[in-house]
Design brief:
heterodimer, A: about 100 residues, mainly beta, Folate-binding fold, about 35% strand, B: about 425 residues, alpha/beta, FAD/NAD(P)-binding domain, D-Amino Acid Oxidase, Chain A, domain 2, eight-stranded mixed beta sheet, 10 helices, about 25% strand, globular
Amino acid sequence: MIRLDCPYCGLRDHEEFSYIGDATKTRPAHAGDASAEDWFDYVYIRDNPRGPHQETWQHIQGCRAFIRVLRDTLTHEVLATGLPHEDLSAKSGGAS
Amino acid sequence: MAEYSAFSLLRHALTGHKDWRRAWRDPEPKKSYDVIIVGAGGHGMASAFYLAKNHGIRNIAVLEKGYLGGGNTGRNTTIVRSNYMLEENAHFYEKSLQLWEQLSDELNFNVMFSQRAVTNLAHSDSQMDAFARRGNTMRLNGIDAELLDRKQVQREMPYLDFSDNARFPIYGGLKQPRGGTARHDAVAWGLARGADRLGVDIIQNCEVTGFKREGNRITAVETSRGDIGCGKIGFAVAGSTGHLASKLGMKLPIESHVLQAFVSEPLKPLIDTVVTFGAGHFYVSQSDKGGLVFGGDIDMYNSYAQRGNTPMIEHVVSAGLAMIPSLSRLRILRHWGGVMDMSMDGSPIIGKSPIDNLYLNCGWCYGGFKATPGSGWVFAHTIANDAPHELNAGLNLERFERGYMVDERGAGPYPNRH
């Protein structure tokens, strides 16, 4: 069982959460200004790292807030959690 | 004469089975090869086998980080079918099924392909309509399909929940009689022996750690057993595709996810076919040893770990019990995880890459096993001719950029929903 530290509710089983996906993808701000390549990158292309991965989860059976999680995809270790806009990349510590 | 036959068995019995030739060599890597395939699973071995057999390329190495068939080839639920609707998928998977039908003969190795049929259950009128459409499309494509009503399903599979209080009553099902199962290890072993006899070097315990590049070409592969030069290179590494691509600075429309599979304790014969739940994700067949082999959804979050989590076990098992209540007292003997390369439209990517001499075979999602021979067949063609076969032309990498999805489920660009 993975346990996620929701910034609002505390440590909870991941079963309470819904996985949304890669948190580093930002939707192009305005459709008119974004190129087809920008949309292609946003919609389809993923870093898919083997190691620390910043991802969005939703505490669907708790506070329903979206949170950001830094998790190692090889070990499932949760390295940090935070608010959805927080960049957690500096918190990966010694993990690779 | 066939290497394996009743006669050879008898002959070796007389000498105490002491002089069987080893099934494949364990060679040291050469300085360079015309073609290097990364990944000695079913797809990698089939690619090497057909490169040698169909295209006359014999100077081939297949590099494997672990041992032959130790990845998803040894971790799947062994289901083979070709019940696809979309043009790009249907003909490709049908070719693969036709190759399965002759694979044991072709390899002189019993892959135990058993055409015991695959039936998908329907639990509503609209699902029956959708299955009628799928079945009709399949038949127009020359693929076998039969729409069963509730009574027909009950006659064939009386152990399903036909009671009045079934949470998801069974309305019928779509059956592909030529579908079935195969022995997954035998496929890897048979292809390995076949490829080895044609001169292919299978190099195990050889992890690819990097690449040497010149312009837009890969000139050599850096491995844990030294650098190996290559003319052309193909990736057939399933869930590790993203990891290997990252060593080339290449990003793909793929996420890696963990999928669990299960085997129950052995039973007397109960399920003589492959049957899948239509109101949740559950698929089951019975192995020749008697264990029920089953699986369900991926764990849903990105993962390169070859193990899953307990909530998904409960989720899969509850879907199974809704379908076959009599399984409730059965114990699970083993369960394990494999890493799926989930593509953005649920269909595979087999073709050229942005790098001149690199070819990709990835994005298999849940369904790589059934594609094993077909995948090798078209991937070998693509590598040998530097151009896709007509059967994989539509399964190219560029389709994402063009917005031309091959989305069999209509789930959209969410890799964990396919």
